[in-house]
């Protein structure tokens, strides 16, 4: 089917994609740099066209709990925020993961910690991939590197969320959220008419009552539940890894980067190749599940790996685990909202592994 | 003890005066003897059965003694995080507007951690029912002070009695909710005598009707006892409640649609 | 039993499996079928029948 071409901001693309994906509800709260998502949806007023509910909640805490309530009814619901607001949502996210509910949470990352800055950063990697909330759970984490991906990942997120009954986090950053690019928008999907059998939609006589909860005081049953969650995450690790490679076939050095850092590194690879240095870039698209196997395979081919991030070095730990000591792994990054330049990455790779 | 003769003539369906609602499951209730929660659950079950709401009702249970409410009433349930039930109910009612949606919360859930969710849901006039059990104490976690604990009342975190200078006055959250334009029907009841049980049931029945009108939030506060938390016998606690809680939290309608 | 107006139901001296003194109809001939007991019973264990004369 024909996809509509538009020039849009990343945030706006997420909002439009949510409407077209047939989302039932969006619950959000303003915070820079993602308020455009809520603003766009309020202006588009999809309740008139598709019936999608858009509500500005009184806090990020309330918004994530509204998502929980909607998801428990088997509906496609999403929320969005930025680093400090995502911290507020962690309790709700843990509950959603524990109750095995599908939903999408969009994090347009800004510099931290604390109130931080409003410029882009990638310092929420640990929070998104390793935990954030309490307990043994994982979110499926998708990392877009363009406005197109921000739009495409909305439908993908709902598909994965409902397939695995797990929350999905889209980890974007302030640069991609604010930049304007060409984006091809998918046609309007119909909102769900049939709901999963576990959803609370009012108990008909034909089934037992559905209880959506993450509480169980019996430790035996709780362990079984946790084992079930872990089995689910293992299945996700087997089946849902996504990444993109750029000039890795004959690479002697490897850059690993996602999101905005990956865009910077793509230029760095081109600059280094002009100097005759064979560098490749591996861009993880899913941060959970991490492309561990592929990075391990590439580690046997190259002489050194650098993880480039806009943080103090968070993804580098997962790269180290994947490489498992085969070759040296280093990290390069900028913090405070600063985006590294391609030339800086080039200099860093040369001084890390070549000469000097 | 009971005469064998005549019993067969008495037990007939047409002679039935009262029977436990079939909406109440056969699970044994875990509440302390004399607790008002169980009576409130029972009334709710009766209304759901009498109004034919079993396939329409979606309840949101809190964190507190009634966290296991979903084991006792045979309808669809969602378990909320502490204080967040109004946020869940907001989404449920907006996404499934034809269902009968209600939350059931205690005083810590609704008036401490959940104050923002309570006030904003009522301010937006979300069309669901909030049942608020106010016993002035945190029962489940062992009897700590609640926002509605009376001045001078002893609890495990106010062992010398609530000192308003350092701990603040009790929060009259129901009055605050009644002052919001979005709230439609706000009333305060109790369940400690048969007459009050009847009144509370009437209030819940009204709230069911009002929800169909989509005119705003209904809040029914049930002032109740906590024999374990108050360290009294059930009979003593009901008497103490009449003498101390009712003057502070007077029973009756705070806001009715005619106003 | 505070709610029963005729003294039909009293608290037993024995305890049940949970360790509580339970209510039981000690004087069933006094029962007038008002169902006050059933109304306040938290656990809903009481079922009341009343014949019409």
If you had to describe this structure to a student in words, what would you say it looks like?
The complex is a heterotrimer of chains A (356), B (259) and C (53). Chain A has 356 residues and is of the alpha/beta class. Chain A folds into 2 domains: 4-196 and 226-239, Rossmann fold; 243-353, Rossmann fold (3-Layer(aba) Sandwich), CATH 3.40.50. Chain A is built from 12 helices and 15 strands. In chain A, the strands form 3 sheets. Chain A has a 7-stranded mixed β-sheet, sandwiched between helices. Chain B has 259 residues and is an alpha/beta fold. The longest helix of chain B is centred in the last third of the chain and has 20 residues, at 194-213. Chain C has one domain (1-53). Chain C is 9% helix and 26% strand. Chain C is built from 1 helix and 3 strands; from the N terminus they run E-E-H-E. Chain C has one helix at residues 36-40, and strands spanning 9-15, 21-25, 48-49. In chain C, strand 1 (9-15) and strand 2 form a beta hairpin. Chains in contact: A-B, B-C. The B-C interface holds B 1-2, 9-12, 15-21, 24, 28-29, 31, 33-39, 42, 45, 191-194, 197-198, 235, 238 and C 2-3, 20, 25-26, 28, 33, 35-36, 38-52. Strand 9 (211-212) of chain A pairs parallel with strand 3 (76-79) of chain B, so a sheet runs across the interface.
The number of distinct β-strands of chain C equals 3
Largest sheet entry of chain C = 2 strands, antiparallel
Order of helices and strands of chain C: EEHE
CATH class of the largest domain in chain A: Alpha Beta
Helical residue percent of chain C? under 10%
Biggest sheet features of chain A: 7 strands, mixed
Number of helices of chain C: 1
**Oligomeric assembly:** heterotrimer
The CATH H-level superfamily of the largest domain in chain A is Thiamin diphosphate (ThDP)-binding fold, Pyr/PP domains
Structural class of chain A, by secondary structure, is alpha/beta
Report the end-to-end length of chain C measured between terminal Cα atoms. 27 Å
Low-confidence stretches of chain C: none
